[in-house]
Amino acid sequence: MAKKQVQPENSKSSQQQKTCFIVTPIGAKDSATRRSAEGLLNAVIRPVMEDLGYDVKVAHEIATPGSITKQVIELLLSAEVVIANLTDLNPNVMYELAVRHAKRLPVVSFAEDGTKLPFDIADERTIFYQNDLYGVDAASRALRESIEVVTQEDYSCDNPIYRAATSLLIQVSPDTPEPDKYLAKRMDSIEAAIQDIARQGGEMGASASSSRARVTGRKIKWIIEGDNEELAQLKKSLSQVPYVSYVTLKGSRMSFVQTSDNYQLERRKIDRILDAFNATVVNKVTMHE
Least crowded by CB within 10 Å, which of 40, 41, 95, 118? Predict the structure, then answer.
């Protein structure tokens, strides 16, 4: 009988090991931020990911000589999985998350319960965890489930940058040679429109709050429809306009109220903004106080 060949116990480690890079706030030594971040890393992330065969790397533990920023960027662009701790909304964490999103590679996000995520990533799937012993088990299970999903071959990474890049904003004709320049020009025109309107509003002699306070008589309620992503950005832009108030957004439909001190002029300004965001006017209703 031929002798059965015995596989060495470390055969898994002899293969190319996958990398998991951790994006996390660090904080000063012994600070609450450091203790919380290290607790999540050492009690949840590291045990789970090492058990799944990943080499776990964290920026402040990298000992290789050279630029730490360069090494971090390289890991963000090359690691099979990135795990981001969004607790405390650390600016460096947000920047590194954006780099990963731009590459459209798998990300699993954590945030401590009670964290209010910024608008742009509020709808992204995030594991919210309780920072206590009981929360370790729940967070570990959730992480395993998320890794199983994002590492499937047919998994399609979805994030705000990718959605914006594939939205109608850059669905240009085939003869447009450089869509990235088109997008940049388009965003510049939107910003210019908002700034121009804000400036003209100031020249009319009132701030946003005082302008709204002195308005009496007729008001116009606008109802518009458009792409959900663009309407979300439009809502933020309209909120800066002095003579616009009560901006509400539900799905692909948005409404707002226009004051009528100079109706025709204000309407033209609003039309400029709506055109920039490909929004369609469904109805305009005259309101009386």
Answer: 118
